[in-house]
Amino acid sequence: MNQPSDQSQQISVHRDFTIDATNSVVNLRDIIGQVTNTINQIPVSPESEKSEIKELLKELQTAVDDPQLSEEEKKEVLEQIQSLAEAAQDPKNETMQKKAKKAVGFLKVISEGLEPAGKVVTTIKSIIPAILAFFGA
Q: pLDDT tens digit string along 82-119?
């Protein structure tokens, strides 16, 4: 039996067919872990520009921990950081460059809808030029 703290959902469509949606909602901690793993997969060498992009993405990820942001806003920003981290693994690839530009565009749109003095907004505005330069935009 389900206890009050159990947030699973179960839908019985027919007597022999059941859909179980336990833990179907990805929580913020999981997204943060995925983003961190993707950032850490960016290959670097001491003289590599990739170490700079890695630091910029980590800085942006840290800025997401802003109490002014709703959980949904945090997820939206993290999804764009994830896209940038994936693109940074192969920044010379044209498809990855397009992916990065799209993510930057989304970050700009997201930041326009947030409190102007918020941590995420100021971080986005300060690092976007460096991110675009990294991808040759």
A: 999 999 999 889 999 999 999 999 999 989 988 887 88
Q: Which residues fall within 8 angstroms of residue 114, CB to CB, at 6 or more apart? A: 68, 69, 73, 120, 121
Cβ contact 84:128 at 8 Å: no
Q: How far is it, in rounded angstroms, from Cα 124 to Cα 131?
A: 10
> Phi and psi at residue 8, in whole multiples of 5°?
-75, 155
State how far the Cα of 128 lies from the Cα of 16, in Å rounded to an integer.
Answer: 53
Write a three-state SS string for the chain: CCCCCCCCCEEEEECCEEEECCCCCCCHHHHHHHHHHHHHCCCCCCCCCHHHHHHHHHHHHHHCCCCCCCHHHHHHHHHHHHHHHHHHCCCCCHHHHHHHHHHHHHHHHHHHCCCCCCHHHHHHHHHHHHHHHHCCC
Q: Which of 3, 26, 22, 25 is nearest to 11 (CA)?
A: 22
- Beta-bridge mates of residue 12: 18
Whether this model's pTM surpasses 0.90: no
